[in-house]
Amino acid sequence: xxxxxxxxxxxxxxCPAVALRTVEDRLTVAxxxxxxxxxxxxxxxxxxxxxRGGASLIxxxxxxxxxxxxxxAAHTDSPALRVKMGxxxxxxxxxxxxxxxxxxxxxxxxxxxxxxxxxxxxxxxxGFEERLVNVDRPLCVIPNPGLYAPNNQSTGATFNMAKDMxxxxxxxxxxxxxxxxxxxxxxxxPENILSHDLIxxxxxxxxxxxxxxxxxxxxxxxxxxxxxAATEAFLTAEETDTLxxxxxxxxxxxxxxxxxxxxxxxxxxxxxxxxxxxGQSFMESSLLVSADNAHAxxxxxxxxxxxxxxxxxxxxxxxxxxxxxxxxTDARSAAIxxxxxxxxxxxxxxYQNRADIRGGSTLGSIADTHLGxxxxxxxxxxxxxxxxxxxxxxxxxxxxxxALRASLEAKITKTENGYKIG
Length: 422
Ligand SMILES: [Zn+2]
Known about the structure:
The protein has 422 residues and is α+β, with helices and mostly antiparallel strands. The protein has two domains: 3-78 and 219-421, Zn peptidases (Aminopeptidase, 3-Layer(aba) Sandwich); 80-202, Aminopeptidase i, Domain 2, CATH 2.30.250.10. The protein contains eight helices and 24 strands. β6 and β7 (93-95) form a beta hairpin. It is globular and about 75 Å long. The two termini are 27 Å apart.
């Protein structure tokens, strides 16, 4: 149902800063007003959103006398190549100096068109202006070292980020070529660029595939598929006596410990006043649903998955568990979430790591250290996590939208001995 909408969303969100703008536009159309985060404690009934660092966003739909809050959270960043300051040159070739952002799989970035997007500081009278730029055309390519090179991917060798991964931008051009392309797209002069947060992104537009068109193959599915689902669920959820929250964070791929990451005070600054006013039962009746994709069983490597239960694509969303609590799910939050999904007829599966393989982590536990409410980690099962192009099942995207919408609409009430879920 959401396949084309998701592919369009991903293509319109090449980097977190542009993704923020894309979501802001949707919120504005839906009647949300941008607010000052320092005034969050004084806000009454209404629809507001807050941004931090130009790339993280929290939106709230505040009802009269809220009984609880429910958060649909995801992250907007994906592994990418960060453009370093300066330029490179080998003979007539002009290359782009880059470094790795997040845990990207290097060889998957070879031989595919890349473009550039991000935030640029441009000199202006008395100071500078922040400009958002997306060049939005194939601009450069990282050429594979070739069949006879010692580092060829067929040998299974690893790649040297400083040596093998420099994208080719032009032949016979100048060392300022990249910034000239950025300036041309942004409508300013390259000489006026003071600094930048630019990344190279996979330009592939994404596609539906499979015998029955049941699969989606696209860049940045981790975690734009969940960011899309959370936004869609938030904007279509029926308003109730729940304070409904959409939280989209940057910097998850590098640990979340930045001013705009899930480990910052952004979420607590907005929501703590409501939690304090609501008291213990309000807190215990609340829920954080952290949505970030999960490793599906791989068709060629099923042995990498837990032998009993690890999610299959197309069989519903994954509820993630980890003894280390790198995933925040516990028995109580799992019971709340599975009851909500059962009522909404959304299929869920269990994701847990093989006991001898270290699993991933995400923002659920990190964000909840600042809130202290029941929290679950869930995800769309996918293949090729952190590759330049990833694969998931389209049906699971629909399941994710439905699960998040049902969570936002759920009337969760803490009772003396347990919970009632209306
Ligand atoms: Zn992720």
